[in-house]
Amino acid sequence: MSTLAPATDLAGLVARRPVGQSLEAPFYTSREFFDLDIEAVFARHWLFVAAEAELPEPGDYVTVALGPYSVVVVRDDDEEVRAFHNVCRHRGARILNDERGSVGNIVCGYHRWTYGVDGRLLHAESQPADFDPSCFGLRSVHARTVAGLVFICLAEEPPADFHEVAARIEPYILPHGLRRAKVAAQIDLVENGNWKLTMENNRECYHCGGHPELQCSLFPVYGYAEQDVPPVLRPAYERYLRADAESRRTYESLGLPYEAIEELDTRTTGFRIQREPLDGAGESFTEDGTAACKRLLADFRTPRLGRLSMHMQPNAWFHFLSDHAITFSVIPLAPDRTLVRTTWLVHPDAVEGVDYDLDSLTRVWTATNDQDALLVARAQQGIGSPAYRPGPYGPTEYQVEAFVNWYATRLKAHLAR
């Protein structure tokens, strides 16, 4: 059973969660559920935390805060990505306090215990003669890179299906060359809402009329079955069908996998991946759909590759284009506060001001993120009202239902332990 001792009947709320409806208010508002989410979801599943481009050289690191946990993700001297608990093995002090940086060794600022970037304890002053430093290396965290993306898992025994998931998504992502990409920009945005509202909002385009910048390039029919497309979206849907047929011919000629793989709530590491066209020029997320970066990410014969999009439960989504890639990670901060980190990646030799304009590169998703933050805050405010009752998901919100079903399934499995 869970080690939590909440006043709320967590198990009862999880057990009675109705299929096809939003969650009851305590899931989004209570501290008990927030703590359970950290324990049952974020401490037990694979999480996307960074792109390898954020760790270009040995000694480069980022720190990740997950509830009571702090994790150091670092590139070691053999250029492998490793992860460790950010806790000194002497008396438990937090070691690295910055969000990112570069080190030769990892040195605790309290008593100067010194660790290599491989986690080994290298120096501990004034210890007895029988002290064995090999017993006091940093506690490791499981880390795995997939086609230039870094995932970690805090569990002692991480979900075993991640190896299979990685093998299925790598052929889609590898052609974009992320392992040698560089960071063009990174923006952190704190949304005033529960992390699940952030994820639910991302999983549907029912609200996409509120994203005018995004709708210049993203077909607003995402998630719609043909019979559910309303008359107002029918012209966009017809354009999508024509662009999709053209894109499939392009993908096949280039040997790029494109068919959707959707296993959002049927496995422990839920995911969805698909390559499909963009509107306008069909090249990138810009106001006319043309490439935002003249230097393409890889040696593509055409920039008109649309978008390769991927969703990963529980905390990430991605867009891989011909000219750049965008990663999004979600970190819970409090029951009503969530960090959304957006990172733009470009070719390592792309030069700002020559190959790309930073504002043009980031404008669409900066605006979209700000709009989503407002929608999430409104949802949090409404759910906090005593008048709130769970409402039904429509057909276009099937991926929201899949996320919530995945989440409820993971809680049930944890509470039954």
Explain this structure to me?
The protein has about 425 residues and is of the alpha+beta class. The protein has two domains: about 45-160, Rieske [2Fe-2S] iron-sulphur domain (Rieske Iron-sulfur Protein), CATH 2.102.10.10; about 160-415, Naphthalene 1,2-dioxygenase Alpha Subunit, Chain A, domain 1 (Alpha-Beta Complex), CATH 3.90.380. The chain contains eight helices and 17 strands. The chain has helices spanning about 10-15, 25-30, 30-40, 160-175, 195-200, 235-255, 360-385, 400-415; strands spanning about 45-50, 60-65, 70-75, 80-85, 100, 105, 115, 120-125, 140-145, 150-155, 180-190, 260-265, 270-275, 305-310, 315-320, 325-335, 335-345. The strands form three sheets. It has a seven-stranded antiparallel sheet with strand order 1-10-9-4-3-2-5. Strand 2 (about 60-65) and strand 3 form a beta hairpin. The longest helix has 26 residues, at about 360-385. The chain is globular. The protein starts with 9 loop residues before the first helix and ends with a helix. Residues about 1-5 have low confidence and may be disordered.
